[in-house]
């Protein structure tokens, strides 16, 4: 299947913006040069800082296309405001009808296959946005599919009524608040013990911990690796994003990485050229060597394997971060303090 990977920038107007769940906004864009988006597509958008807003002047972020209507004249995105207000999501939530912004034509690195005997779509939290259009397409095809959504509580999950109405008992919701935590092992066993284990494809998007657990269970069950597909952006790490410092001794450079920006963006903003391509933790081009570390690495990529991540001697600059776990655990209990908590420090050798 063709993959739309050529980046073509244009401009779009915001034609709708509304809250569809707690902290989740639906934003509809009308591109000047419409291109229909296939299931699993995303767009990159550039988000400018508003007056006085901290962080980089421009952030580029990827968001799944939840719906593509009228030949791509209306592209629906759905964005969760990340705590503590990561830059990209905060800027999307600030968009209003009539705003114009740079947007790419739909890009595709999570294509929906054809011809599988069965499909399982697994979403964790706002990762749902990568699977909604797939579920709609599979239903239209008359395919055998399941849509499984796992989240903390239903109030923060968008479109639940619509999904239940559209997909009936093919849609399953697990929420921790209702004691319905997703059992990854059981889900994968169901595939392995099902009628077509070798012809069942599983597509997933959600927290990195969930996807890692599925990948391990999938391998343990000896299911075909090519039948397991995933979308990576929007991954949450093990800790909430914190501010930390990055040092590059060879260049004599030190930059501060805010919760709303990445190491890659912060280095680029300081004029440091870094090799990068996907900017989503997939290609490995931006992997840098860790020379020293104060804090813990919070890997958010899917490029490094478990052993490489455990070794702690490299990281993907485009998505991975540094956290001081105790600091995360105590934040933000006392707003009267001026945050004396320790800050992570990462010393790097660039690729
Ligand atoms: S640019 Fe591809 S993994 Fe970072």
TrEMBL record:
<dbReference type="InterPro" id="IPR017938">
    <property type="entry name" value="Riboflavin_synthase-like_b-brl"/>
</dbReference>
<dbReference type="InterPro" id="IPR006058">
    <property type="entry name" value="2Fe2S_fd_BS"/>
</dbReference>
<dbReference type="GO" id="GO:0018489">
    <property type="term" value="F:vanillate monooxygenase activity"/>
</dbReference>
<dbReference type="InterPro" id="IPR036010">
    <property type="entry name" value="2Fe-2S_ferredoxin-like_sf"/>
</dbReference>
<feature type="domain" description="2Fe-2S ferredoxin-type">
    <location>
        <begin position="242"/>
        <end position="335"/>
    </location>
</feature>
<protein>
    <submittedName>
        <fullName>Vanillate O-demethylase ferredoxin subunit</fullName>
        <ecNumber>1.14.13.82</ecNumber>
    </submittedName>
</protein>
<dbReference type="InterPro" id="IPR001433">
    <property type="entry name" value="OxRdtase_FAD/NAD-bd"/>
</dbReference>
<dbReference type="InterPro" id="IPR017927">
    <property type="entry name" value="FAD-bd_FR_type"/>
</dbReference>
<dbReference type="InterPro" id="IPR001041">
    <property type="entry name" value="2Fe-2S_ferredoxin-type"/>
</dbReference>
<dbReference type="Pfam" id="PF00175">
    <property type="entry name" value="NAD_binding_1"/>
</dbReference>
<dbReference type="InterPro" id="IPR012675">
    <property type="entry name" value="Beta-grasp_dom_sf"/>
</dbReference>
<feature type="domain" description="FAD-binding FR-type">
    <location>
        <begin position="7"/>
        <end position="113"/>
    </location>
</feature>
<keyword id="KW-0560">Oxidoreductase</keyword>
<dbReference type="InterPro" id="IPR050415">
    <property type="entry name" value="MRET"/>
</dbReference>
<dbReference type="Pfam" id="PF00111">
    <property type="entry name" value="Fer2"/>
</dbReference>
<dbReference type="InterPro" id="IPR039261">
    <property type="entry name" value="FNR_nucleotide-bd"/>
</dbReference>
